[in-house]
């Protein structure tokens, strides 16, 4: 959706499938073991630079 706006917005690309896998694991652990410990998961991401953060061109 960010590519359809003017200026095109800079965003991050995240591994949605991996996030889903971890969410299911956490949910199953909570259901089966009553897991209450907070967890932290670091996943890679990619910055997608578009027009919203580019330097304007001088004419």
Structural class given helices, strands, pairing?
A: alpha+beta
Low-confidence stretches: none
Please trace the helix and strand order, writing H or E for each element.
EHE
Helix content: 25-40%
Mean pLDDT: 84
Strand percentage lies at 5-15%
**What is the strand arrangement across the widest sheet?**
1-2
Given the structure, what is the number of helices?
1
Rg value: 18 Å
Span of the ends, CA to CA: 30 Å
Report on the structure:
The structure is a single chain. The radius of gyration is 18 Å and the shape is rod-shaped. It has 59 residues and is of the alpha+beta class. The two termini are 30 Å apart. A two-stranded antiparallel sheet has the order 1-2. The chain has one helix and two strands, in the order E-H-E. It has one helix spanning 16-33, and strands at residues 11-13, 46-48.
Write the layout of secondary structure elements.
Layout: E1 11-13, H1 16-33, E2 46-48
What structural keywords apply?
59 residues; single chain; 1 helix; alpha+beta; two-stranded antiparallel sheet
How would you summarize what this structure contains?
Helices cover 31% and strands 10% of the residues. It has 1 helix and 2 strands.
